[in-house]
Amino acid sequence: MSNQMKGAYILMESLLKENVDTIFGYPGGSIMPTFDALYDYMDKFNYVLTRHEQGATHAAQGYARVSGKTGVCLVTSGPGATNAITGIADAMMDSTPLVVIAGQAGAAFLGTDAFQEVDLIGCTLPITKWSYQIRSAADIAPAVAKAFHIANSGRKGPVVLDFAKNAQVEMAEFNYEKCHFTRGYIPFTAIKPTQIDAAAEIINNAKKPLALVGQGVILGNAEAELKAFLEKADIPAGSTLLGLSALPSDHRLNKGMLGMHGNVGPNIKTNEADVIIAIGMRFDDRVTGDLKTYAKQAKIVHLDIDNAELDKNVKATAKVLGDVKASLPELTLKIKEAKHTQWIESFHEYEVKEDEKVIRPEVYATEGPLKMGEVVRKISEATNNDAVLVTDVGQNQIMAARYFKFTKSRSVVTSGGLGTMGFGIPAAIGAKIGAPKRTVCMFAGDGGFQMTIQELGTIMEKQIGVKMIILNNNYLGMVRQWQELFFKKRYSSTPMMNPHFNTIADAYGIKNAEVSTREELDAAIKEMFADDKPYLLIANCEEMGMVYPMVPAGETITNILLG
Amino acid sequence: MADNFKAKQCGKECQKCNPAECNDGKKLFTVTVFSENQVGLLNQISIIFTRRRLNIESLSVSQSALPGIHKFTITTITDEDTIEKVVKQIDKRIDIIKSFYNDDSDLVYQEIAMYKVATQDFINLEGTEELIRKYNIRILEINETCVIFEKTGHTDETQGLFNELSQKLQVLQFIRSGRVAITKSKIERLSDMLANIEAHKMMYE
Ligand SMILES: Cc1ncc(C[n+]2csc(CCOP(=O)(O)OP(=O)(O)O)c2C)c(N)n1
Ligand SMILES: [Mg+2]
């Protein structure tokens, strides 16, 4: 039986075969045939029209990060495609599975500088896991199948499909075969027993082991396996920014966050441990500081799914290549039960010090202007530490990451590797759609909020119940902090004149409040969580606030400023 | 003179460096890449060199022994630590089937160079026979204006001829191909890789 279809319809059917339920997009000339087909599928997909293509990509990222599914974007060629590039690069850095389908000039026009023709494949090669140009209708189904296979297996990441207009309107036979395999790409390497044995031996001889938990644990759904591993050998753990929530905040072995603005304990202990077990993390420079002085005394065991990460920044004594979902249980079998009571207690002194010098004054302030930390703590507590945290970038991001607490995994959506301001609002939209039953709290600075402020329109139209908090300091705060510390307080381009954010929220029909005192704050938080509707809270915070602890960029990880 | 040339390879003034190994720890590596036969592959590979500011010394691309699989042979000067990371990053690309690196001791390799000189200069040259014998020159074309000949060998050999010629006459054109190389070892990495791929594929069938 013949099953001839128009290319645009083949795309729709292919997306259904991949169980796509949500599409974030924005139309335009060279993707119009596809949007025309989408019109017939409005009952099959939850289609979200964002207000900018960057918003579509970040929303797809938020959706993917909380749900584990592949985020899907549909945009037009030329400016639509280039607007999507920031989100694609962000997804590449943070291993987020995305399939971005962009219109393209017809195949016959390619290379002629046709209207809205951009060499998207050329532009995105370095920032995608795979990119492919679909030039004929017969090409669509296999390309979509391969795209979804690649995006959401192995080390996950973004895939771009550059969809020539002629392929959207041509007819072809529709036959869908899921892709489980592509030559040259083996995402699921079998775990090598010799690697497990070598790693286990090192861990079994450790007196002062420290685990570094990365997002690989969450991407591999290996939270339970991580816990079993840590508990069996009594290993304290620090977490990267993206690894947060893999282990509940209040777990006995959770020693907090690593890196530049991480907790003092795990950073100091990195340079005291005799064995470091890195689990699904990549030794980013924001985690390690100066590599020349980083954990030189320790044997390093590195578990990662991406062979190119092993030995990239830090040379490993023992490497275990593969999905941590598979390697952790095998390793747990081979390690001995142990107790490291004294070692774990040795973190205490640093916890007390950080608590006194940094944390208490920040989150339990009683006088003076509002502190970002206290706003974050109060909101986290109001959700019973059960919400999804989405952040923008800057001081707001770090304060939120430090003081929001987690009980469930997949609770942190933040731009780590790329540090993209403007990530917050659209990512929160995607997160709420990907986890509709959960409370989603989005913290942004006054700067980053205005980078994708247009997405309030998306929130209004779809009535997406995100709780947005602007930690307003009237500065590009994180840059100002560096200027204060390293540029002689020369505040070049960081003070900012802001609009009246409440009026903007009013224009979009979004309930809102502005607070500057502790009493107002408590009342507003109550109101914010009274229903599941969108809400914008503007918290006017200390203008000159600083994020501590801080390890200045490029310095030894134990050179920690406490303010 | 040959020494001079090698010193130039790594961009440093170290006249005495060992032909295969410059004394700053950098040396010439040959990267072999097997890929799917499709557009854009060279771009995918070259951006990985570009990101690390590695200069591609030579490049040659052709069909491999296996149908549908292309082979890139790329030489570059760097240290082992870097080349290992580069190869892993190339290998990671979806359309790359296998990538690995070797140093000269693992390889049989060859380049071809062509030279064009004025016929009159060539006739006037003293010791033509010795030169032809010494370098094993093969003449490809002689006409009233020019003589074109070729020499195959390692870079220092083809460069040696160029240098000697340049002292005696004016070389009108000179071109050297990228390196072609075959590993000496018993291990056939591509076949092993393909076997591994087949085993992996079976898991789904
Ligand atoms: C797109 C983008 N542009 C610039 C930067 C550099 N940058 C990092 S943090 C920051 C300041 C952010 O200011 P704001 O959003 O007000 O947050 P705050 O630090 O004050 O909390 C800037 C400009 C960036 N990360 N992303
Ligand atoms: Mg600010």
Describe it for me?
The complex is a heterodimer of chains A (563) and B (205). Chain A has 563 residues and is an alpha/beta fold. Helices cover 37% and strands 17% of the residues of chain A. Chain A has 24 helices and 20 strands. In chain A, the strands form four sheets. Chain A has a six-stranded parallel sheet with strand order 3-2-4-5-7-6, with helices on both faces. In chain A, strands 11-10-9-12-13-14 form a six-stranded parallel sheet, with helices on both faces. By secondary structure, chain B is α+β, with helices and mostly antiparallel strands. Chain B folds into two domains: 7-105, Alpha-Beta Plaits (2-Layer Sandwich); 109-176, Alpha-Beta Plaits (2-Layer Sandwich), CATH 3.30.70. Helix content of chain B is 36%, strand content 35%. In chain B, strand 6 (138-142) and strand 7 form a beta hairpin. The radius of gyration of chain B is 20 Å and the shape is elongated. The model of chain B is unreliable at 1-20 (pLDDT under 50). Chains A and B meet through loops of A and helix 2, helix 3, strand 4 and helix 7 of B. Bound molecules: thiamine diphosphate (TPP) and magnesium ion. Residues 392-396, 419-422, 445-448, 471, 473, 475-479 of chain A line the site of thiamine diphosphate.
